[in-house]
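Notes to self, DUF1003 domain-containing protein:
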Amino acid sequence: MAAERTPERPRVRLGQALDQPRVRRPKLWPEYDPEAFGRLSERIARFLGTGRFIVWMTFAIIAWVTWNVSAPDGLRFDEYPFIFLTLMLSLQASYAAPLILLAQNRQADRDRVNLEQDRAQNERSIADTEYLTREIAALRMGLGEVATRDWLRSELEDLVRELEERGAVFPQAGSARSDEGDR
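result:
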C-alpha cells in the first residue's frame, strides 16, 4: 500500500498568533504616497508657471551675478563665466520639466474622467429626451381618440336637431315644473 499524502501545513513559529496579520519586514526603499507626491508636484508646477516665480528667479540671478562681480575676491564663490550659476539653472530646469509633465498628466487624467462623466450624462439626457418624446407622441395619439367637451356638445346638439326633425316633443323646463305643481 502506498502511504497517503497529507497536505502540508504552513509552518507556524512559536509565539506567532494565527489570527493576526504578520508584521511586514522593513523594506529597503521608503514608501511614499503617490497621490501626495502628485499634489506636491502640481503645487510646484503651478508656482513655476507664475509671474512671482519669474520675479524671484530674476532677483536671485541678478543678486548672484552682482555678488560674484562686485564682492571682494575672497568672498566670490562663482567667477565670471558663472559655471556654478549655469549648473544651478540646469538643475532647476531638470527638476522643473518632469514635475510640470507629471502635473499635466494628472490634469489630463482628471479631464479624461470629467469627459467620460459628461459623455455618460449626455447619453442619459438623450435617452430621457427620447423617452419623453415617445411619451408625448403617445399622449397626442391618445388625445386624438378622447372625446372633448366641445365635440360632445356638438354631437348632442346634432342629436337634438335630428330628434326635433323626426317630430319628437321635448317638454320645456318651465312646463315640467308647472305639471309637478298641479299634481
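- The mean pLDDT is 84.
- The chain has one domain: 34-164.
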